[in-house]
Design goal:
single chain; mainly alpha
């Protein structure tokens, strides 16, 4: 368990009346995400910005978009490109490529980042 996750777990126990419910229940009471969910949310938001053209210079060649109406789910798949040395980028792309096809179609087709954030928060609990 990560240090940040332990701090969040301990802090939510300090709130009166919430010492005994499970960690998951305490998180839902405060509308918080676990560390794993926060990391995935950040990765998906960064991938969305990249696909919309925000990070063209920095993330050149991270993903290739494969659009098809024959796919189940949102109709938009991502394919990770090959890397030689950038291991950090590889892990990021692996996490995003794994979860991107499972996003709802309306989240992937969001016109703006703010719209994606709202739609992603609703779908995030189903992804993990």
């Amino acid at each position: 368990m990560d240090v940040l996750e332990r701090v969040q777990r301990r802090t939510t126990k300090m709130i009166g009346g919430l010492k005994y419910p499970s960690y998951k229940d305490r998180l839902s009471e405060f509308r918080l995400f676990s560390l794993e969910e926060r990391r995935l949310r950040g990765d998906l938001l960064a991938a969305f910005q990249y696909l919309k053209g925000a990070y063209r210079k920095d993330g050149e060649g991270l993903f290739t978009r494969v659009c098809s109406d024959r796919t189940r789910g949102n109709g938009s798949k991502l394919k990770e490109d090959r890397f030689r040395l950038d291991i950090g980028k590889k892990f990021f792309t692996m996490r995003v490529v794994k979860h991107w096809p499972r996003l709802p179609r309306e989240a992937v087709a969001a016109p703006f980042l703010a719209v994606l954030k709202v739609r992603l928060d609703g779908a995030l609990s189903n992804l993990i």
